[in-house]
Amino acid sequence: MLITGRTLDQGATVEEKLTEEYFKAVSYVELSEEDFNALNLQEGDRVKVKTDFGEVVVFAKKSNLPKGLAFIPMGPYANQVIDPATDGTGMPQYKGVKAVIEKTDENVKSVKELLEAI
Amino acid sequence: MEVNVVCTFCGSVCDDGIFDTEKFKTKRLCKLGSSKFSKKERIKSPMIDGKEVSYEEAIAKAAEILVNAKRPLLYGWASTVNEAIRLGIILTEKVRGVYDQCASVCHAPSILAVIEEGLPAGTLGSIKNRADVVVFWGCNPMEAHPRHGMRYSISAKGLLVKDRKERKVIVVDVRETRTARQADLFVQVKPGYDYLVFSALRAIISGNADVVPDEVGGVSKDKLIELADIMKNAKYGAILYGLGLTQSRGRDRNVENAIKLIQLLNRYTRWVILPMRGHYNVTGAGEVPAWECGYQYAIDFSRGYPRFYPNEFSAVEVLKRGDCDAALIIASDPVAHFPKEAVKKLKEIPVIQIDPFPNMTTLVANVVIPSAIYGLEAEGTAYRMDVIPIRVKKIIDTEYWSDEKILEELLKKVEELMG
Amino acid sequence: MMLHIKNGIVIDPKNKVIKEKMDIFVKDGKIVEESEIKKDECKVIDATNKLVVAGGVDMHAHIAGSKINTGRSMRPEEMRPVRSKANKFRATVGRTLLTAPAIGYEYAKMGYTTAFEAAQPPIGALHTHEELDSIPMVDKAALPVFGNWHFVLKYVAEKDLEKLKTFIAWALERTKGYGVKVVNPGGVEAWMYGKNCRNLDDEVPGFNITPREIITSLIKAVEELRLTHCTHIHCNNLGNPGNYQTTIETIKLASGFKNDKRPVLHVTHVQFNAYAGTTWRDAKSGAEEIAKVVNKMDNVTIDMGQPIFGTATAMTGDAPFQFTLHRLLGAKWSNKDSEVEGGAGIVPLVYLPKNPVHALQWAIGLELGLLIDSDKVVITTDYPNGGPFTEYPYIMAMLMSKKMREKELERVSPYVQKATSLPAIDTEKTLEEVIHMTRDLPAKILGLENKGHLGVGADADIAIYDINPLEIDPSNDYELINKAFRRAMYTIKGGEIIVKDGELVKEVWGKTYWVDVRSKVELEAIKADLEDYFKYYSVELQNYGVEERWIRMPERIVL
Description:
The structure holds three protein chains of three kinds.
Chain A: E1 2-5, H1 8-12, H2 20-26, E2 28-32, H3 33-38, E3 46-51, E4 54-63, E5 70-73, E6 100-104, H4 111-117
Parallel strand pairs in A: 1-5, 2-4
Antiparallel strand pairs in A: 3-4, 3-6
Chain B: E1 2-5, E2 17-20, E3 25-27, H1 31-36, E4 47-48, E5 51-52, H2 55-68, E6 72-76, H3 82-94, E7 98-101, H4 108-117, E8 120-122, H5 124-130, E9 133-137, H6 141-144, H7 148-153, E10 168-173, E11 185-188, H8 194-205, E12 215-216, E13 219-220, H9 221-232, E14 236-241, H10 243-246, H11 252-265, E15 270-275, H12 282-293, E16 299-300, E17 307-308, H13 310-313, H14 315-321, E18 326-330, H15 334-337, H16 340-348, E19 351-355, E20 367-370, E21 380-383, E22 389-392, H17 403-418
Parallel strand pairs in B: 6-7, 6-18, 9-10, 9-14, 10-11, 14-15, 18-19, 19-20
Antiparallel strand pairs in B: 1-2, 2-3, 4-5, 4-20, 7-16, 12-13, 16-17, 21-22
Helix pairs in contact in B: 2-17, 3-12, 3-17, 4-11, 8-9, 8-11, 14-16
Chain C: E1 2-12, E2 17-27, E3 30-32, E4 43-46, E5 51-54, E6 56-61, H1 66-74, H2 76-79, E7 82-84, E8 92-93, H3 100-109, E9 112-120, H4 125-132, E10 139-144, H5 150-157, H6 161-175, E11 181-183, H7 187-191, H8 211-225, E12 231-234, H9 244-252, E13 265-267, E14 275-276, E15 284-285, H10 287-296, E16 300-303, E17 310-316, H11 319-329, E18 334-338, E19 342-351, H12 356-371, E20 377-378, H13 392-400, H14 402-411, H15 415-419, H16 431-438, H17 440-446, E21 462-465, H18 478-484, E22 490-493, E23 496-500, E24 503-504, E25 512-516, H19 524-533, E26 554-558
Parallel strand pairs in C: 1-4, 1-5, 6-9, 9-10, 11-12, 12-13, 13-16, 16-20, 25-26
Antiparallel strand pairs in C: 1-2, 2-3, 5-21, 7-8, 14-15, 17-19, 18-19, 21-22, 22-23, 23-24
Helix pairs in contact in C: 5-6, 6-8, 9-10, 10-12, 13-18
């Protein structure tokens, strides 16, 4: 289950979106220790996150999440894969999307590259 | 020279900041606030299709785009002041466009819930002074509103609650956040199950614990009863909630159920509920249109009068369906924060951007108009998350035009073109 | 710009002009002597055989501020009806709740030129001013609420009249407010503990004082400061059967005070506080008893708070009452506990003619308007609590016509027949009386010397209506009256014609009045108290309040 949301680093760079700091702040997914190890990952590895709505390559990070829960900071990477349906409210489903995550060798696109691909 | 500064980042709108004009840094503000007031890359000059032009030329081009569009979308507004927002409404009405603001992808479900149930709230000062129980539900202020706890809700010292020890802090979330680590009690809920947990609490508090199963949403019945007891025995409690409720399955229904819980609790003791608004003036971006044209977001003026319908007129929907043919984006970055289906449309239509800083929307904008930073270079009125008006200050001079000035000139130009 | 209003039939009670054919001259926004204008340079308005009066003065309406806006936000169903599309003027929407532009335009079309926001939460003062400044056409002001403000409660407890006066002066300047409004004194502080103060001698939790002491102290302070407007009170125990006695007790607190220029106490929307009986099952009208007391006193005025059948929205600073209403009706409910100052609550309502309770309320409002001397009662609906201010013409027509009342009584619940004296009241107020109740009487109570009348020196706020006061018979022609007062033939604001034949012709912006009485006190005296107690606020003392330059057209009245 994938959720997305705010972090301090993302917020601190939210007005500098074309910088390296912002890129670092939003281009990763947090996984539980169990899931991280189950995928044979090391810090700095990349994973591909796939949902019914799209896919995105991001860096993987270990965190204290419960097993089965993944977190991507709000931003352009998260928005490749969340559910755009708003159920009549205008609000897409940014939190709570089923995702499949697998290790990958593909590179993480820059913010500009992401935009070009849309 | 050190001067008082009112922070213009998050919905806490801390007004006790200090800005050192020589060193160009702030004291007392959190990481988010100090980044707001730090030197960053600015959009250097107004631009049309990448070419540097004057303000007047950029505004003339923007007016042309808006007037020629059948249905322009004017979106953003959450990080600018009321004076600008008011001009934005008048402008949107003039060009028969759609007004939508950042709450659309944030607390819009709260607005919808208020329509169903009302909002039993209190100001942050009431919480600081009286709340002996504070529940953070689906929000993480330590990362999104870092000084909120020390100023208003966790360690803040108040009239009746003189100490952190006199206050019980509870966090309900799907994961153990930084805020959860500050809490006296952390309740972990399964993602998407908050609605059921609220129903269970309502059942227990109204004396119907027997209908509650042994486990609801990943929370044991014992834990629910413990939580319900704490809530019922509070002298004055507050639920502060965030996007965990509004962006998850159920959205506005989650908030409605939370409000119904508060209504019930008020029969036994005193409770309030308050949304943790994200931007320093997203509240204003909803309040100003409410008094100018009756609604808070997703407002269409194409028939010459305001119509409110989130399903059709919110920015994400309007972009996904292709119901707009031009966009004015101000004080916001939808290219970074909208789902990619909506971003696709922004790449296709003419986009005007008004913002101090280059962001992802700048990459798709045809006309870019750089503006002054409110709270530092321009003053105006903002509403804190509890709808308290606070005036943000002008501390240094700048060559950049304020949003208010840009919109004033834009409106004039549009009126000229429309005859 | 000079105006010559020719041959109108003028009713100007303040200057003792009753139905006289008279010309009115306007120059530079003021009413002037004929000698000051050049007749050939004037724009002439032919008012032959038409009624010419001062623009209306609405002294109590909830038109601007946080709770008004929350009311709109939570009731899009009320905002949906479209009144006008955008053209030369703004689009306007709203059934009984209106947007800010709609409020200004509707007042103007009805011939009203001054409107006061009845209850301004002090910390939200800037929001009130922002909304007031989004209301075009009318001159305006706001009344900050004092009756549950901790500083007031402290000084009342300490029996320190000097500090109380000083605080009022400080507060009026910081809020850019006009006068002292009191709402359910002590009761809203009690609500912070889930309680209320229904009776004048109930204890206010945490302060060891009573509503009686709060009200008396505030009246004393206001009178010693000689503010232009008297203490303006929304009584304790609002909305409960039997409460008429609390109202009478409150009214009597004005005894012993004297003021030559204006009353000493104005009790607002008395209809909501005029119920006899013990529960809603046996509730009846307490209007007669209240009327007797008010008529005997020479220093108290009231306003009606008339319910109008249809939708309405209850919004007041009386937070505990609003919660009670929510429980009673099962309706959605908003609440706002406000720092250490007070609170507010909002609940949607509807008044149905066949509902015995609603019909009772409707009848009581009219009883008050009819039984009380026209010199002591102002027409209001406590907008939007009773109904929209756009229905003032309905009330005016009803007060002047027994026939119209009889017709209305046929369609309302028969409960009013035995629960009120309305069917038996034969009184038909005259045209000059209802003009008095909507123009110079509210202006006098507010202390606005240049409003509500057409004497030389008055502001040129004038309304001309399409009725001939010399020929019309309000007792029978109530439909004409009701219609004519809805759409002025001309509305003139500050010498500018803003409405013609009931339609807007020009948009203007009014002034915001506020009262500066700081010269009568020593602000230093409370400085230490402010600095100390502000630790309980969530904003800095240095950032508290409204600066004049943030207001569109502030008009400082220095006392």
